[in-house]
């Protein structure tokens, strides 16, 4: 090929290389070339020359020519002209024109005329801002030296450059340097030319070409995968219907030759793959000789991961996730004893114990007499936990994490998935962890703080290992973090049941825990809170996790052998924000603590003497950590670490659209709450003073407390008139902005749960800030000055007024629904309100509690509750036979905690607060035991605490407590009575309980009853039976002295309740096994609660069938009016 120039002596020699326009993966090395009648070499300083791309056509295949500049070159002249043409081959070449210091001329004649005319400067280089299948946006540089308004001429043509070819389009552009051209054909080559127009004089045309895009395939998905084959499907690119094309599939795997497959179909099964191998699959559209951008997916053929899931019986839940409602089902393990016979029973055994907060949940093992079989059945508990998290939905994951934290188990921070090779930060899963602790600034005042840990700024310390060590890193951490005289198995380790079994799918897991001080010097190891992360596996195999920890931690402690230290030379230049410390050993026999720097070069400094035992090492680490905390290390919150995770190519669990899409709705409500009491008054008015007055009127209608000497019928008529006026006023209240946002948030079935969880957590955070001091005062007064009833009542009212929780929004839903009948039948508001009961019923099925009795007014919105339960009945396909378990008893006696422990539910428990009114939870009964229990579901009712006489605010509130308790008992098949360990109040409480049961005689109810004494120390069976007999005597003595009970012909407690004299009295141990917040939940408490649960289920078997939810609705109406 010849290059001819008018000044050949000044053109440097060079070589030409050829690049194919598209490769097998469909990616052109570059898409743009430039054209002009002349092409110019121009200088780049003194060291190199560049030439513009040249295009040729050869045997139906396009190529680009690139010029290689010689190493040495003389300074060029200011203007070089090269005319490139190859007439012998009949090929056209495309070049671009660049001006340096002068305008290029088109020939000798033009060169002469240019001397007498003003040369018009051409536009700068054409660039393409956007190229789609049918449009191009091109821009060009400002002409040099041209002042004032500018006019440009733009023309374009399709295909090859042929002299005289008809143009596709022509346009004049004024005072702009960008132009959009539409209605182009896809996959075609277009040449664009731009010239400056200065009063009719045109500059040289600057040209460039580009190919319009070929539409890529869409929706590439894997429809089937197995060990050696995968089936893919996709849809055609946009606007490709009717255009002849095919697809190229590129199959790539590390260390293997790429495989290319062509097909005309939109699906393909690829066989002969290797098991356990990761493949990248790219699919491109091919139109004649042009390829689209590829769409790609990554697959991992099945291997170890799927086998492990299958071994545990979880393979079906990997794609169709486990849910909380499934896990909480009443099944055969609740009705009979069951043994672990195979690994398939491990997940259920672990989940059952964890839901009941049993700190022994991780110790699961099959019962087998065959040693070989026993070994085959053993699974490392970390593999079990990893498998369960990967097979659970986001809401079950949250519940698992909360309960693991209460048991003082480390929780997953970075979760590896060996199926997809992805790592996920479990931020959403950890958002519900709330703990109470006392840092040094509060401890000296004997105060504590309650915080949601993902938002708490505290130092993060990470512990990792290089290679294998004889020392158990996790066991060292357990000893480091356990308080004096207490050692808890926070991190599972090789010395625990199944801990020595090789891990298969949990390698690369990063677990996390927290050290939280209680504020007592003789108990706390550290006076400040800190977070601790632990990487499972060798850092050489998990560089992403190690990099993340080095960027987020205040310090990273690395366990390694002295012989391995040279490995860290490979880390020079790595981004490290943390202080690095080595715990080096010599063949595992002694240990030395060293600091390490890797920039500018590797350097270690010994900071402790050699330690010969594990105890000595733990003490050295304790001193190191305490010193670091004293030096004010960098503090981080988990919520703020998400950005670092993303930069490390780590996924974040809450980044999915369903989760983030509704967060704005929750934020829009929260940002308008400056004062909770004023917010309720303005945005939730339907549940305000009008609803309270209506409730008082309803009570007065039946009680006639204020009738005096007035005729009863006339008095009740006047009450009805007043009631009608109040309801009319209530109906005129508009639906406020906050409720409209709420309706929008719960409307989507996919996003409803996320919205409710965001709102619930945000309201909780808000209330915590608002009420923290009030709750502390309330708790202190109740403990130290119980006789100061007025002050206690005053603080209680303030807490109630300033509280704002999820139930307030559902209360507003209930009141709006009850007023909906005044709206036009087909109005949008009417339609929205009609859907509320169905949405609320689904919420109940999703695991949220439903308020049965409004605690602020001690009333039931009957119309609302009726419709919600009716919709629940429909949702259960009319299979809603139920039995009911209720708990009543002393205020602050742990009723909600007991129900949550027994059934895994989530009744609200919080520092310094009590349940108000009554709430219900619904638990499904597994189909295999429905016949035994004669029901489809079990309803759990949690009630407001009964207050002894000396702290009730007035007679009405005293009666209200008994009414709520009486209703709950009337609705129940089995009742738990919770009795506080405070003997001074027990007599008053028993009297209130008996009054609640006495009222039921009129409605013909006599439920089974169990008395639970909380916070009791362990005692032998003989002592328990003795206490049970004493309790019966106490109850009978109360009846004997009560005039109203004697008038009702009640002479003994068995007249109003059924119970087994030997087993009706239960003694619950303290909730915590040690000093919170570092103490785990008590195993004894959990196991006692489990025994009580099984007994209650046994009681329900004996109870006569009571009907379904429709019957329950009728009972609520009948009993409430009767009471």
Automatic annotation (TrEMBL):
Protein name, entry field: Up-regulator of cell proliferation
Origin species: Pogonophryne albipinna
Residue ranges annotated for the VLIG-type G domain, each copy included: 879-1121
Ranges of compositional bias, category Basic and acidic residues: 31-41
Region of interest called Disordered, as start-end residue ranges on this chain: 1-45
Record-annotated Fibronectin type-III domain positions: 122-216
Biased composition (Polar residues): 1-16
Coiled coil feature spans: 764-791
Keywords in alphabetical order: Coiled coil
